[in-house]
Amino acid sequence: MSTVVRLAQSFDEWRAAARELIARGVPPADVAWQSQPGDGDLFSSTPDATDTSAPLLRLPRSLVELLESAACFNVHDRWAFLYQVLWRWQLDQHDVLSPADADGARLHAMAKAVRREEHDMHAYVRFRERSEAEGAPRFVAWFEPTHDVLPQVARHFARRMGSASWMIATPAASMLWDGTTLHAGPALLSGAADIDDAGEALWLTYYRSIFNPARVNAGLLRSHIPSRFWKNLPEGAIVPAMLSGAANGERRTGQTASVGQRSGATMIPVSAERAQPARELPTTLDQCRRCALWQHATQAVPGAGPPQARIMLVGEQPGDQEDLAGLPFVGPAGALLDQALREAGMARDSIYLTNAVKHFKWEPRGKRRLHKTPAQREILACHGWLEQELTSVKPQVIVALGSTALKSILQDGAASMTPLIGTPIRHDGRWVVAVYHPSYVLRAPDAASRRQAYEVIVAGLRQALVLGQDSHHSVEAGTSCPSSRRA
Ligand code: URA
């Protein structure tokens, strides 16, 4: 059989051609794949028309996704290789997908490299805001991806950047978002220098403001941002100075009002107001040195809510996002708590939310700050702050979210959740309801235990609502309420 030539400039084109070739029983050795019209082998035959009416080759979705990812890997023989995989698969050689098979190993390695490139592009694309010009995109970014990941990365940014128009240019192609639709285009620019960098000052101000000398690990920073990205990152020029500032003992983040005051939409994912709520003066809590946790936290996180709320929810300590935002329960645990509050019919803005420990305790794990449970001495050191909140808010019901909160509320380092789940007690003239911490639900190993733990939280919140409706209300058991009595 003579060589059959097929043109594939996209995964869809390749798929249509591959389907037709397989239907005709053309083996991989007899196909020459071209990536550009006119490419390739002078001795090959003229391309046949691709027959898109060929019977549909049914493939599992996971295989299509794997092939589609691998198709973005920038290598000269990608279409031939994918056809080889497909050919073997339809011959029932399903071990072609096994990492133990040479083709399978290559396929997985290609897909993995593509996912990595997508991740890097999400992380290192920097949009610059351009001066207003009729019909021109508002933000422009330049990036040099190793693999062909521009379309999917553009879809990612389209989801995230709302109606602001932008363009991402690469050496091979460009993608434009006009606020409602994505448009693929040719290569338009020859480098980052072509981009009007009016917005660069904004980005650098923001970058300086979120740079936290207490969190920075220079070695990690260098190893996690490969040097090929630095030249196109505007912050590449200012990082060395900031690192030396960190080495010289600067600790606080420089989150400044100036970021929040800048007008107009930006590419900043967290607004400055959220990143650092305005505080006229540092509170005494900000200056707390009663334990060592302040040293590695961005800021102390006080409670939030109506000053005279009937119900106070006490968590353990701020997490990564709370530490940055300066507000309790704004991260994943907060999202779960919100859901439970809604289900229990408790309005978040009617309750006071706080934590037993006000500084984030964490340990580094790769690029992430991993939560670390506070020690009893840290719970004790922080107890005075909780006591102050209890004295000023005077809640009738306290909901302890997890055992750190319970230990602090009861001032008992040995307090255990289990006997109190579902059984509120009186303590110091208030009801104490114990429920699991929302993170406990998030960490539960399977759906059934997640559901069970979540139901405990919702039931506890409902119980707290009932108890809070009437402070004199003696719950069903109807007895008087001495200190630490069970309902
Ligand atoms: N976990 C807590 O205990 N408190 C928070 O504020 C966030 C997560």
UniProtKB/TrEMBL annotation:
Coiled coil: none annotated. Gene3D superfamilies: Uracil-DNA glycosylase-like domain (3.40.470.10). Keywords: 4Fe-4S, DNA damage, DNA repair, Hydrolase, Iron, Iron-sulfur, Metal-binding. The keyword 4Fe-4S applies. It comes from the Bacteria. The keyword Methyltransferase does not apply. Residues 302-462 form the Uracil-DNA glycosylase-like domain. Belongs to the uracil-DNA glycosylase (UDG) superfamily. Type 4 (UDGa) family. This is Type-4 uracil-DNA glycosylase.
